[in-house]
UniProtKB/TrEMBL annotation:
One of its GO terms (molecular function) is glycosyltransferase activity. InterPro entries: Glyco_trans_1. Signal peptide: none annotated. It comes from the Bacteria. It comes from Chthoniobacter flavus Ellin428. It holds the Pfam family Glycos_transf_1. PANTHER family: GLYCOSYLTRANSFERASE (PTHR12526). Gene3D superfamilies: Glycogen Phosphorylase B (3.40.50.2000). This is Glycosyl transferase group 1. Residues 163-315 form the Glycosyl transferase family domain. Keywords: Transferase.
């Protein structure tokens, strides 16, 4: 290993906040530490729990504390760019690396002044994007490094019987497209096919989705099980044959596809954004926002004579590129180059 670095790690959201960016941040900060570097995390997430980390976490630091931390570091890493923590670079010049996990827009998709400013300032950073699709939206050159998954948690368990058909894993909001998957089940019912679906997650659209399930006559097929994490989630995924990611949103990557794949599910994803990058050749795509095409793909994957060997054989080498250690090593090469190591 080259000379250890002092890495200031900015992640607007961090544990115990739940989400893909938070999970990737937790993985990378841990791997950087395991590789022998000194890491300090700054985050706007105020909540804390009993989980202990091998690095200090500064939650909502004040201006002077943030300036001191930037002065301390050899390289400043942003796990998604945050203007709230980037401003000290105007006063304390340090090598800067920004990893982009999402489009630079407001939550509703509008482009505000903050987003225009972010697009300007990232030109002064070394940039990383999590998919080729996302790279098209960043106004600066960027290296493509796919997201890591928790290979210490998500894995196949041969002791668990794979006795369920479909699983949806995600926040219950319109952008995630669970309603489109319900429509695909209606299409399949017309062909006298009644696969079961487990919906894993919570969100503001849960009551709407439950009512839609009732209206479509799918209550006997759909099981809403709420939010699951850790070993409980791993065990649940191991019971399913196919994980479906029907996002209406142009997903920057699609970490859930890797998690399902690692647990032995065949991922079936919408052909949009970074989702095809997330599955490589180890899964199947269907046309974006096309319930009929999703239904056709589900029918093929669940057919008694379906030959799924090529997907299962492709999963291991694809997952190997996305282990925590493999992805962190790619990030560290970029950080070392930025720091002149």
């Amino acid at each position: 290993m080259s000379c250890p670095m002092k890495i200031l790690f900015s992640s607007h959201f961090f544990h115990p906040s739940i989400g893909g960016i938070q999970e990737v941040g937790r993985i990378l900060a841990g791997e950087f530490t395991r590789a022998g570097h000194e890491v300090q995390v700054v985050t706007h997430t105020a909540e804390r729990d009993s989980v202990e980390f091998p690095f200090p976490i500064h939650r909502r630091p004040g201006a002077l504390e943030l300036l001191r931390l930037v002065e301390w570091c050899d390289v400043f890493f942003h796990n998604n760019i945050s203007l709230r923590t980037a401003w000290p670079l105007l006063l304390r010049r340090r090598p800067w690396v920004a990893a982009h996990h999402a489009l630079i827009t407001r939550v509703d998709g509008r482009i505000g002044w903050q987003d225009r400013l972010k697009q300007r300032v990232v030109r002064g950073a070394r940039n990383i994007v999590v998919s080729k699709a996302l790279g098209q939206h960043i106004a600066a050159p960027a290296v493509v490094i796919g997201n890591p998954y928790r290979d210490d948690l998500f894995r196949c368990d041969p002791a668990i019987v794979r006795d369920r058909d479909l699983v949806f894993l995600g926040r219950l909001v319109p952008d995630k497209g669970a309603d489109l998957l319900f429509q695909a089940l209606v299409q399949l019912r017309e062909r006298r096919l009644l696969p079961g679906l487990t919906v894993v997650g919570q969100g503001p659209a849960e009551s709407v989705l439950r009512e839609l399930s009732r209206q479509l006559g799918l209550e006997s097929q759909i099981d809403f099980v709420g939010q699951k994490t850790g070993p409980e989630l791993t065990a649940l995924l191991n019971r399913h044959r196919v994980l479906v990611v029907p996002s209406r949103l142009q997903e920057p990557f699609g970490l859930v596809a890797l998690e399902g794949m690692a647990c032995g599910c065949i991922p079936l994803v919408a052909n949009c954004g970074g989702l095809p990058d997330a599955i490589g050749v180890a899964g199947v795509t269907f046309r974006h926002e096309d319930a009929e095409d999703a239904a056709r793909s589900i029918e093929k994957l669940l057919a008694p004579d379906a030959d799924l060997r090529r997907y299962k054989e492709a999963a291991a080498p694809h997952l190997a590129k996305h282990t925590a250690a493999a992805v962190a090593a790619q990030y560290l090469r970029v950080l070392e180059e930025a720091a002149g190591r």
